[in-house]
Each structure stands twice: as C-alpha cells, then as structure tokens.
Amino acid sequence: AVAGMMLSAIISDTILFRSPTTTEEDKAAVRELAEIAGVDYEKYGMDMLKAGADISDYSAEKLAGNDTKEFESAGKTFSCGQISVMDLAPINAKKADIMEATKAAKGYAASYLMVTDILAEDTYLWFTSGAEEAAKKAFGKKAEDGAVYLPKVMSRKKQVAPFLLKAYAE
C-alpha cells in the first residue's frame, strides 16, 4: 500500500515522466515501487492521470484554486495555477468563469492558468484581463483569446514562472 502511494506521488509529480522536472531517480524509483506494488506503472499511471484529469463535475471556483501558487515581482502579486487535462473541450467551456474566479479570489494584479494537455505535452497559458502584455513579453508570443500557446511546456517551476517573474520585473 505504501509503495502504491509513493508510486502515485511520483507519477503525479512527473506527469508520468513527461515533465522536464523528471529525474533518473524518479524513473528508477517508479520501476522499483511498481514491482513492489505489483502493477504495470505505465498502465497504472495513465489510468491515474485520466482519473485526475476528469474535471467534468468541478465548479469554476474549484478549478480556479486548483494547484495555484502566488508570485511577487516588482511589487505586483500574481497567481499561476495548473490543470492537467486529456481533453481540452470541457475546460475550454468553463474558461471565462474560471479566470474571473481566479482573479477575484484575492485581488491579484493578474492571474494565469496553465491548461496542460498531458497527451500532447503542450500548455495553453490563460490569463486574466490586464495580463496580456506580461504574457507576450514573457514568452515572445502573440496572445489569442486570452491565452498564449506554449508547445512542449509542462512545468510551471521551470518553464513558466521564471519568465513571468522576469517580465514583471522589467
């Protein structure tokens, strides 16, 4: 049971080795823990990610607060959350409500939400009104419909937050 919980934690944290934060130690630990738990980690991991990516019955407020962290740069506080999905359609249908709930929650200067497609290994970085310039500056990309498309981006820690922090500092 403990090996299964540890296995689940590593799979979740590394998005089944798709995250750039994945280490060789993570991979070795997953193989060993899967053997102890008696599971095929690839099948188990995909089933687990599918279950975690089902947001169909989540409210906009719950999605807005999902895995969100605060950042501060140049006296401005902003939030950046992340939701991992396997199908963009259900979350796209709730986009406006999610982003308003995110910004309104604590009066941030801006709020960002990484909508990460686990299968494509891409992210759409959604942002609230007033945040478009910082997003464009951070990633050098044109924003469309309140979002910037970031191919092969999956890590807030390594691939999103540092660029947003720099954009706000400038």
Structural write-up:
With 170 residues, the chain is α+β, with helices and mostly antiparallel strands. It has 8 helices and 5 strands. The chain has helices at residues 2-14, 24-37, 41-52, 60-64, 88-92, 95-106, 132-139, 156-169, and strands spanning 68-73, 76-85, 110-117, 122-127, 147-151. A 5-stranded mixed beta sheet has the order 1-2-3-4-5, with helices on both faces. A hairpin with a 2-residue loop joins β1 and β2 (76-85). The radius of gyration is 17 Å and the shape is globular.
- The helix tally amounts to 8
Low-confidence stretches: none
Query: Rg to the nearest angstrom?
Result: 17 Å
- Helix content bin: 40-55%
Q: Which percent range describes the beta-strand content?
A: 15-25%
Largest sheet: 5 strands, mixed
The largest sheet has its strands arranged as: 1-2-3-4-5
Could you tell me the mean pLDDT?
90
Cα distance spanning the termini? 49 Å
Mass-distribution shape:
globular
Number of strands: 5
Structural class: alpha+beta
Write down the secondary-structure element order: HHHHEEHHEEHEH
Keywords summarizing the entry:
alpha+beta; 170 residues; 5 strands
Q: How would you sum up this structure in a few lines?
A:
The protein has 170 residues and is an alpha+beta fold.
List the topology elements.
Blueprint: H1 2-14, H2 24-37, H3 41-52, H4 60-64, E1 68-73, E2 76-85, H5 88-92, H6 95-106, E3 110-117, E4 122-127, H7 132-139, E5 147-151, H8 156-169
Parallel strand pairs: 2-3
Antiparallel strand pairs: 1-2, 3-4, 4-5
